[in-house]
Amino acid sequence: xxxxxxxxxxxxxxxxxxxxxxxxxxxxxxxxxxxxxxxxxxxxxxxxxxxxxxxxxxxxxxxxxxxxxx
Length: 70
Description:
single chain
């Protein structure tokens, strides 16, 4: 992913005739301190596809598990 970001940044800088970083931050670090925060973070990751599918009007079987959210 880092290599992809570097290629995109170089291409954009060349196209716009500028220098410097394009992507300021790659991630936001937040230490999960309580069991509730951990539970909410896990639920967010596991149900992320289901949330996006619902927003797009697609139905997802209630027992379906996203293989990419492990």
